[in-house]
Amino acid sequence: MHIGHGRGVVLGDSMCRLLEFTGHSVQREYYVNDQNTQARRFGASVWARMHGEEPPEGGYTGAYVTELAEMAKRDLEGIDAMPREEADDRVREYAIGVMVERIQHGVARLNVRYDEWFLESGLWHEGIAQLAIKRLRESGFLKERDGALWFGPALEEEDGLGEQVRSNTEDRVVIRSNGEPTYFASDLGYLLSRFERRGFDRVVEVWAADHHGYVPRLKAAAAALGIDPRRLMIILHQMVNLKEGKMSKRAGRFVTLDELLDKVGPDAVRYFYLLRSPDTTIEFDLELALTQSNENPVFYAQYAHARLANVEVTAAERHPTLPDDADVSLLAHSWELDVARQLAFWPEAVEDATRLLEPHRIPYYVHDLATAVHRFYHAGNETSEHRVVVDDPVLTRARLELCRAARHTLKTALDLIGVTAPDRM
Question: Residue 387 domain-assigned?
Answer without folding.
Answer: yes
